[in-house]
Design goal:
5-stranded mixed beta sheet; Conserved hypothetical protein from pyrococcus furiosus pfu- 392566-001, ParB domain; alpha/beta; about 250 residues
């Protein structure tokens, strides 16, 4: 890899949205309001074979400079990077910034991070979608919850969690929230060897997501604790509903 500094025409700077986060206008306006030419720093870019320079770090500064009618930007140019190396460099540049996990994982997906690839594959096998955009109405945004479950309990456990959710609630938006996903995970950690997943799915489908949410809030008001733990308690409650005392999980 070759590395050097030079000024680059703003018209030759591009952003690859496959790994870059979306532009935030508020960030651009803040840079413009507090603009100091001496503190602008350098824009880190990758020189690609198509003749353009793709921004790895500094897209908001560049947009501010465009708005202020600059023609060039000081750049640190990287030559010879692969696409995956670009994405990985973007990810590492942004691990210390206030960027959400969705945006970081979008980059990780592009440089073939195995954990993210596994989580996406598992979700898709359960007919669920993981979203990497805040504005998308559908899909799982709870990246931290998914990765925590995967790292703690492994791929098979995460698949069981997501399959129960998918088959019981068919993508109901409340069932895709991190606190509920964590609640199902905690239930399966404690009781997974004692229940048939198909029976659990049928019971939860019958009760519905709205009833589970109402019950979890009642338990939260009565017992305290996190919503994840109260979703676990709500699942136990509905599992035990109508069962003989000897078959109730709450007695274990």
């Amino acid at each position: 890899m070759k590395k050097y500094q030079r000024e680059v025409e703003l018209s030759n700077l591009k952003v690859d949205r496959q790994y870059q986060r979306d532009l935030t206008k508020a960030n651009v306006n803040k840079i413009i309001k507090n603009f100091d030419n001496a503190c602008i720093g350098v824009i880190t870019v990758s020189a690609r074979e198509d003749g353009f320079y793709y921004i790895i770090d500094g897209q908001h500064r560049v947009e501010a400079m465009r708005t202020m009618k600059f023609s060039k930007a000081p750049c640190l140019v990287m030559e010879g990077l692969t696409y995956e190396e670009e994405a990985k460099m973007y990810y590492h540049f942004n691990t210390t910034k206030k960027i959400n996990q969705q945006d970081r994982n979008k980059a990780r997906l592009q440089f073939q991070d195995q954990t993210i690839l596994d989580i996406v594959r598992i979700a898709e096998s359960c007919n669920l979608k993981i979203t990497f955009k805040d504005k998308e109405a559908e899909g799982i945004r709870a990246h931290n919850s998914l990765e925590a479950i995967y790292n703690r309990c492994g791929a098979e456990h995460l698949e069981n969690v997501l399959r129960v959710i998918s088959e019981a609630f068919a993508g109901h938006k409340d069932s895709l929230q991190g606190r509920f996903i964590q609640g199902v995970s905690e239930f399966l950690i404690k009781y997974g060897d004692l229940v048939e997943l198909s029976n659990l799915v049928n019971r939860l489908r019958k009760e519905g997501m709205n009833n589970l949410t109402v019950k979890a809030k009642e338990l939260s008001n009565a017992l305290g604790g996190s919503m994840a733990s109260n979703f676990e308690r709500a699942i136990v409650h509905f599992h035990d509903k109508g069962k003989k005392e000897s078959a109730r999980l709450s007695k274990i």
